[in-house]
Amino acid sequence: MTSIDENSKEKLRSVSVDLNHDASLLIDIPDALCERDKVKFTVHTKTTLSSFQKPDFSVPRQHEDFIWLHDTLVETEDYAGLIIPPAPPKPDFDSPRDKMHKLGEGEATMTKEEYTKMKQELEAEYLAVFKKTVQVHEIFLQRLSSHPVLSKDRNFQIFLEYDQDLSVRRKNAKEMFGGFFKNMVKSADEVLISGVKEVDDFFEQEKTFLLDYYSKIKDSTAKAEKMTRAHKNIADDYIHISATLNSLAADDMTANKNLNIILSLQKVEGRVASDQDLKLTELLRYYMRDIQAAKDLLYRRARALADYENSNKALDKARLKSKDIPQAEEHQRQCLQKFDKLSESGKKELTSFKGRRVVAFRKNFIEMAELEIKHAKNSVALLQGCIELLKSN
Amino acid sequence: MADTARDAPPEQTDFHELEDGEELFPEPATTQESQPASLAAEDISTNSNGPKQDSLFDDDPEDLFAEATEEVSLDSPERDVLLSDGPSPAITPITPPTSVITPRIGHTHDDMFTHSSFDEIEEEEGGDSFDIHISVSDPEKVGDGMNAYMAYKVTTKTSISLFKRNEFAVKRRFSDFLGLHSKLASKYLHIGYIVPPAPEKSIVGMTKVKVGKEDQSSNEFVEKRRSALERYLMRTVKHPILLKDPDVLQFLESSELPRAVSTQALSSAGLLRMVNKAADAVNKMTIKMNESDAWFEEKQQHFENLDVQLRKLHTSVESLVCHRKELSVNTAQFAKSAAMLGNSEDHTALSRALSQLAEVEEKIDQLHQDQANADFYLFSELLGDYVRLLTAVKGVFDHRMKTWQKWQDSQMLLQKKREAEAKLQFTNKPDKLQQAKDEIKEEIEELEGKVQQGERDFEQISKTIRKEVSRFEKERVKDFKTIIIKYLESLVQTQQQLIKYWEAFLPEAKAIS
After folding, report:
1. Which of A284, B202, B374, B477 could bridge A221 with an S-S bond, Cβ 3.0-4.6 Å?
2. How far is A197 from chain B (nearest CA, A)?
3. pTM across the whole model
């Protein structure tokens, strides 16, 4: 059972600003269990709200339960004017698993220490993926709990409280297909709707900005990922080099024990890689998803606008035909109301979103720069110590 | 100067036999090789003797030197000239050939070839500087199309009096280097000297250059080759015997050099080489030597292990170079992407911070590129050189085996002839008998000579190898240590730069509001 302690969680909670402010509803994931492909999260809630049956309780949840909750919220009409926090991505242990597999195959070509060290590295990587997925699921719930409207959602409450298996409420195969189809239609809508004439300057600006920003941040995320991978590869190379130097040292004077420096360098390089991953890549990745959620809001609003315009046309037609005028009027009134509501809440959401984003970027950039400096200073000290030793010999 | 040495006075030929036992790097005793023998004469002329000589030469305590002392005092001016090269008065006249060429820490150049003396005994001697520095530079394309080639400028700076001047330069092409190596190898390898191998040919690399593609990969290829040629020459002149070889001197000094055609891969000489190599490989498997000396067995095993480890290390370092280059490329791409993101960002302070981040990452990508070059030129190439050197070392051990085989063969032949002679005693053909007896006696005498020579050769090569191995190991340790220190220092520099860059970025990040 791999569990996360409070300390490391503090360090992890970096991508979004600290969300657990409101003591009336505090949620966290104190531990999680990893079984083969499935991760079982323990969702722990502490609340003073009377809407809950108990003040302090925990339930086990799977990733699919989170997805169900997210999709339910997205499909709730009432929340159309809100940015629904992006769903946490599926836990992906493929990369460390593949590497572990390759390592097993190449075991014969390595020395025992090399193999052990590589294995340790992979286990650390596995653990890092694990920690990241816990963090991302936790943040999802915390965004919901700190949102004035979403925290009161009935399904959210069920998610937190229902102590039986949620799978019966989850989408069955047919529904999932339906969901997929809906997504398809939505993308087609996107194309149509970006063409819709925007009356409001604020939204016009936001639309342009978000569309452009999304593609840029997606690109940056991908590039940052590649950087991190290259760092990790270098760290792995250092492991192989230090192992060979050690075997040379066994019967040789040249590669003396001082060259365990290489091993320490590997550790530092590895840490640089994972810190960069957390502070930069994860940050970009998270906000990429968040921006997608903001875009979704825009599209919902644009669709409401289109609906309103259609209802106008329908009303005109009805007036021409002198048929069903009251229904058409009612429909038009409803569409307008919906649209106005969306616009109002949308504006609020997007403004606070920008604030949140700026704060998060600032925090992470500062932390990243500080960590890079720390690691580099560490390396310099290690290297200079080693050089001294070598020169004095 | 080198010429006059070869015309050494005949009385000094006495020294041939003395020197062979004593000299640290003895010249070949056999008179079959003309050139080395001439060098031997030169050596002898400079070899004065004094009390120290005995301590230098660990093997032979004979008193032969008493005689030698007198001879040398009538000495040729060469000796004095060579002596004057060594600044340290502590060095007794004995050591000139070795001390002049004895590598000492060269303060004048901080390239990888700082030397140390190649023998414990010599380390006790004062600081005589091995003052020769060779640089290979200015690669220039000569000619066009498939007949084009790269000409390199080989500049030698030295105060060693073997050379006519202190500073001189010549133009050489790659096949000249190969030609030099091939000559040295044919002269010295089979008597036990570890001749540094020349850089490898590369048909693909050269074709690109010939065709005229002035792109980064062909520039890198030329740089890699230039650096390899420089290291090759420095290693060659570090060897005390090779330095004095007339082919080496000619290579460094004379403006015109006959074209080494036999080095072409597809020439008949090249094919012959390949056939010989195959034959050698087969022979190696069939020779079963009775190793009387455990030292050799031990050393051979040691070199086998070293070879395996170095190859493995080389592969890992090559992988490191590759990944670091990848990191550089990825960082550059990320920098561009971050810049675009910064442009797109509408919050001014964050936008500025993103642009700053992009700039930092761009500088860092250059850092990674430079580090990758250091990884390669310092670390990876060193390992590659030593992997090839080890092949030469192993070759020398193989030659010893062949020498032993030759000796044994002569011995067996002698045995057979002796048996034949004994049989002759019992034949009944009196008239033919005397003639046959005489013939056989002649053959036996010849063979006895051969056997003796074979034994001497074998002892000689064994002795040479011992000294060479000891020198090689010392060089190796020093080489590696120097390079590793340099490499670590390059890493330190990179890290310090990283600190600077991130420290500059930090206030920008804090300024986001």
Report:
1. A284
2. 22
3. 0.74
